[in-house]
Amino acid sequence: MSESLTTKQVAEHASVENGLYIIVDGSVYKLDTFVDEHPGGAKILKRVGGKDASKQFWKYHSENVMKKWGPKFKIGEVKEEAKL
Ligand code: HEM
């Protein structure tokens, strides 16, 4: 399933109860089922729930992490919002 989501919709899923959506490079990942297994800890992931965490992601992980885990948790992409 691949959805098109606005940043506002992603922000509505900021907590584990709401799915813990996180944006990395324009893709949206649903991490509620992964948060307790995250080798970097649950706390750091919860802190970026609902937000774009591209900078933080690439600070701590290599491309291999995204290759292995990305497809398991990706639910969609961020919709380009019309500039009015
Ligand atoms: C799709 C989202 C994410 C996945 C699948 C993921 C996965 C992983 C994995 C597999 C590791 C183990 C280290 C490794 O194999 O290189 C790790 C470590 C870590 N992650 Fe994540 N992570 C995600 C998002 C994040 C985010 C958004 C942050 C920061 C806000 C973060 C912070 C860390 C930290 C601090 C470590 C420990 C690094 C170390 O021990 O040197 N992760 N993560």
Automatic annotation (TrEMBL):
<feature type="domain" description="Cytochrome b5 heme-binding">
    <location>
        <begin position="2"/>
        <end position="79"/>
    </location>
</feature>
<dbReference type="GO" id="GO:0016020">
    <property type="term" value="C:membrane"/>
</dbReference>
<protein>
    <submittedName>
        <fullName>Cytochrome b5</fullName>
    </submittedName>
</protein>
<dbReference type="GO" id="GO:0046872">
    <property type="term" value="F:metal ion binding"/>
</dbReference>
<comment type="similarity">
    <text>Belongs to the cytochrome b5 family.</text>
</comment>
<dbReference type="Pfam" id="PF00173">
    <property type="entry name" value="Cyt-b5"/>
</dbReference>
<keyword id="KW-0479">Metal-binding</keyword>
<dbReference type="InterPro" id="IPR036400">
    <property type="entry name" value="Cyt_B5-like_heme/steroid_sf"/>
</dbReference>
<keyword id="KW-0349">Heme</keyword>
<dbReference type="InterPro" id="IPR018506">
    <property type="entry name" value="Cyt_B5_heme-BS"/>
</dbReference>
<dbReference type="GO" id="GO:0020037">
    <property type="term" value="F:heme binding"/>
</dbReference>
<keyword id="KW-0408">Iron</keyword>
<dbReference type="InterPro" id="IPR050668">
    <property type="entry name" value="Cytochrome_b5"/>
</dbReference>
<dbReference type="InterPro" id="IPR001199">
    <property type="entry name" value="Cyt_B5-like_heme/steroid-bd"/>
</dbReference>
